[in-house]
Amino acid sequence: MDKTLACLIDEIIQAHHEYLRQELPSILELLNKMVKLEGERQPKWNALKAVFIQFFIETNTHLTQEENLLFPMIRKIEEPISIVDLGQVQALVAILEKEHETLDALMIEMATLTKEIRVNQTGSSNAQIIFDKLHQLEIDMEIHAHKEDHVLFPQALSRSRKSNF
Ligand SMILES: [Fe+2]
Ligand SMILES: [Fe+2]
């Protein structure tokens, strides 16, 4: 049997939103340390931190929009008598999909900078933890965006279309 949309939303929040809320501050803390230690010798750490902060801010806004606006609307679709504003769902989905693209572009920028830093960075366990955490973040973001872009959003749109007839 197909998962309910509410169930999928709970899973996304627990597996991915919680992960981001826990990991992003901890990565930022590590980057702050690294910039203090190595920023002068290796200015790319400063560039990486700047892109990461932008990613952090954009992600916070994005999660809030999903949890406070779109997800409650999607949960309503499954209620026995549901009146959902299809236009509103479509507009929000379009905004959030665009934000996924922005976040993806920032992830690519971070991956490029990380690669450049790696070449000149030796023997720092702190740096290695950051590289590992950013790699994990990239994998998680891919799964997270896939669940929303290819499963949750299309199903929500198709069911809200039906509930409007
Ligand atoms: Fe999400
Ligand atoms: Fe999202």
From TrEMBL:
Main localisation: cytoplasm
Keyword Cell cycle included in the entry's annotation: no
Keywords, sorted A to Z: Cytoplasm, Iron, Metal-binding
Sequence ranges assigned to domain Hemerythrin-like in this UniProt record: 9-156
Any one annotated GO CC term: cytoplasm
Subcellular location(s) of the protein: Cytoplasm
Keyword check for Ribonucleoprotein: no
UniProt protein name: Hemerythrin-like domain-containing protein
